[in-house]
Structures are given as structure tokens and as C-alpha cells.
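User: For my dataset I need records formatted as: sequence, then C-alpha cells, nothing else. Please produce one.
Assistant:
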Amino acid sequence: MARSSTESRTRTTVSVVVLFGLCSFFYLLGVWQRSGFGRGDSIAAVVNEQTKCVVLPNLNFETHHSASDLPNDTGSTEVKTFEPCDAQYTDYTPCEEQKRAMTFPRDNMIYRERHCPPEKEKLYCLVPAPKGYAAPFHWPKSRDYVHYANIPHKSLTVEKAIQNWVHYEGKVFRFPGGGTQFPQGADKYIDHLASVIPIANGKVRTALDTGCGVASLGAYLLKRNVLTMSFAPRDNHEAQVQFALERGVPAYIGVLGSMKLSFPSRVFDMAHCSRCLIPWSGNDGMYMMEVDRVLRPGGYWVLSGPPIGWKIHYKGWQRTKDDLQNEQRRIEQFAELLCWNKISEKDGIAIWRKRINDKSCPMKQENLKVGKCELAYDNDVWYKKMEVCVTSLPEVKTMTEVAGGQLEPFPQRLNAVPPRITHGSVPGFSVQSYQDDNRLWQKRINAYKKINKLLDTGRYRNIMDMNAGLGSFAAALESTKLWVMNVVPTIADTSTLGVIYERGLIGMYHDWCEGFSTYPRTYDLIHANAVFSLYENKCKFEDILLEMDRILRPEGAVIIRDKVDVLVKVEKIANAMRWQTRLTDHEGGPHVPEKILFAVKQYWVVESKSS
């Protein structure tokens, strides 16, 4: 019995060893296959074939401008094909639609703010390109020339003829670089600014141009490595923002009205107004307080045009000396209240510099109406009313310390760890996770380039990242050939837009259940990382995809990363919108549940009923 017991224990031990060995073997085999190096999973291979997870040999990213060369197959019978909208919607901007705007009050430009259509008024059709539409000129030629067929509106060439905004010359518009306050050209105007503001050394990287016209200031600041966010309303100055984007210059439809700007606090190195018609001296200084909110500590505010230079120009402005003098006095008083230091006033241009911290200049409280802003959190700005209050700066220990942290000059700040990260101001992110995110997106961009070899060649000038995170997608692509509008969704768990600006990049908040504040056909490439998972059960995928189609140029490209079950739904809708699509594996291998959908919007114009 003793020997039998010993043999039993031996067999049990052997069984355990064998079982452990088999478990270890199959675990390691699974890890090997999931890494993307395993090639033995025939079932996975069949699934990948069914979902078209292959390299894209036939998806063409070049421009052709010939609808007759494109296939007529919409690809899916499960989703009804979307028809073209009527020709009247060629320049449709859903949240800035003129007829709806006129039903709102004129006070504080409320009627020029965002007013999106209710569900029953949304368009479920494809916004057409105008007849004769052609791909924009490549940068930098696009800065100076725009195809007339793309924006067939001549009114600005008449209204602003003597101010050198834009000239109509046959089949193109030419932009000589002039403006209302710089008819001799933006370059000379910027030279004047650079004599006071340290533009040349990379300390001024992000700028805000309020009431930008056709964005010639932003266009010419790009030569100085300054990235400008320009905005203007959709008003009687027809298509001014549309011209800016067609030129390849960052811009959006917007106004300084009753709502806060869609940016976090402390993000712009410089703000600018050149005869922008904003009543800075009115509303108890509310508009200057909003500029103060978005300016970095030590940032610059430039004001040119009325009332600056009133002693010389009052007759041309058809206003009395007293009126202009009182307006400037009020502006000076608000600037003093905000602790801005006036550093220059010459040739009709005044420049102030914002305080670097609250300790260096205690807020003046003579005006009892003005107190400190009480925000639930500093980024709580989407559809929030502007207020007459002053935004506090982060605390400092000394009078010489820059509130919120000192930034590196550009381009060093692009990949330096942003102060908001080092100070722990962004929940869930550390120095290590920030650096990991940079490496991850560099790897992903390299994988994108293997499929779309035109990604960083200049083929795509205006790029949109719909869910930008820390801005690492844009940082990996950074080039003078392109710029990226980094959008942080308003429903994102964490606001990272402040980090994006601290990297020397630009962007804004937005809710993708609504239309974006831009004209149709203004972006060459759209990138959407986990956007549809984020908005699942929030709004319809059709709404988001139709908006992407509206703002994407004909033959523009789309890259969508998401879970495979989400992308299968997205692809069916995309095929019903005349997009050519291909679903591919994650760069980590076929067993990663996240996939990538590449798409190209087909070329068709308003008279093409099928393509």
C-alpha cells in the first residue's frame, strides 16, 4: 500500500507539471499571436478578409477633378444613399444660417452667434461643391491666389477695393496682403509690431485675430512662425472666413458677442484687433476682460484703428474729437483695471502687455461692479455667457514668477513637457504619460504614411483632428506645409486644450452633435480618433458623418480610428455618402480590436446627379 501511495503521488506530480507546461505554452502562443507576429490563426484570417483588413493598393489619395472617372457603387444596400442637397446650400453653414440668425436679438451681436437648427430642420443630404470646383493651389501659392469657381463671390473686391483685401483677376482672386489698417501690406505692419513685440525669437507663437477679414495678418504671420487663430462673423462681408480657409490660413466663423470664446484661459501669446469694430469701451469693459482671460500672462494686446490715432484721423473716421478721445480714455481705464501695461502707441497702433501674475499688480477695485470671475472650472466656456469680471491667474510665490509656468520658445515648446502637465493641472496625465502619448502618435503617424504616402507632402494643408487629446497627432505632423485644427470635444472626460496651446498648437472646443463653425469644403483631411465611440448614444452617426462630409473638400481624405463594431456601422454610412473606404488593421496587428478606416471623398459638383 505504501508503494501504491508513492506511485499515486508521483503520477499526480507529473500531471501537474504537464498541465502547467501546456498552460504556459498556450499562453505564450496566444501572446505571440496577439502581438501581430503570429500567422497561424486561420479563423482570424477569414474574419480579416471579410472586414477587408488589408493594405490599400487601390485607394487613391491624388486629386483628379473628374467625376466621370469614379465608380458608381455606393457600397452598401443597408443604408439609404444620401442625395445631394439643393444648389442653394452650396455654402451652407448650419449654425450660422442667415435666415435663422435674423430671428435673434441684435444686442451684443447675439444674432451673429451660433444658432444651430433643431432636429426637424437638419439637412440629411450632401452639400454640393459649386460648378467648376478645383483643388486649391498648394501652399504658399494659395496664400495669394484662390480659384474663383470655388468661392464665386465678388462683393469684397468692390467693398474693400481701396484697402487691398482682394482683387478679382479672371479665373482667380488675388490677395495682395492688404487690410483696412495696412493697405501697404501685412509684412510692413508686422515689421512695426515686431519692433515692440518679440515675434522673431519664438516667444510669440499663438495669436488671436478678432474680426480678421480675409486673415491676411494670420497668413503673413506664418512666415514668422506664428500660428494665428482668426475669426470673423458670417455677415455682409461675404465669405471672408471662407476666403481665409481657402487660402490655407486657420480661421473660423465667430464673433465677440454675448458668449465666451471657445478657448480655455491663458492660451494666446498675442491678441490683435485691426479696426475690428468691436466696442472695447462698452459693456463695462467685458470684451477686454474676455481678451484678458484668453491671453497668457505677459501676453500682448494690439489695437489699431479707431480710436487709436484719433488726433490725426478723426476727420476720415467722420467722428468728433471728443467722441474718440472719450472712447480711448475708457479703453485706457479698463486696461489699467486689468493691470495691462501700455508699452507703445505709434502710427495709429497701440500695444499693451498683460501682467505676468496677480501678485505683481494687485487688481484695482475702484470699480465696485468688477470682481473676480467665479468659474466651476477654468474651461467651462461652451455656450456660457460672458461676464463683467476678471479671471484670476494661478498663484505664484514671487512677483517675478510667471503664473502658470514659463513656456519654452517655439519650436522647443512643441515637445517640451507643458506646465499644465508638470503642475498636475490635467487630471489623469503625468509627465510619463505625456511622453508615452508622444511616442505612440509618432508610431501611428508613421503607420499612416505607409498607407497614405501624401500625408505630409503638402497635398493636405488644412487638417482637422476631431478628438485631439494632448495634440500629439498634430505635433507628429508639425510642418510649414500644413496646420491642424485640434478640437477637444465638450463631452471629453478631461479638457486638454490648454496643453495643446502650451505646445504652440491651436484648436477649440466643440460638440460634434452640432455643426462646426466653418464653411463647406474647408478641410483637406479629417482625423477622428475614438470620436464615434465617444458620441455613441449621444447623437446619430449620420449627423457626425454628414458634417464631416460638409467640411471636407472633394477628394479630401479621412482617417477614423475606433472599435471594429463601431467602424462597420460608420463604413456603411460613409459608402452611402459617396466615400471610397477601406478598413485596415491596427498597426499593432490583426488581433487588436481597434481598427482604422481610411476614406476618400469622391469628386462631384452641384450639377452632377450621380458620380
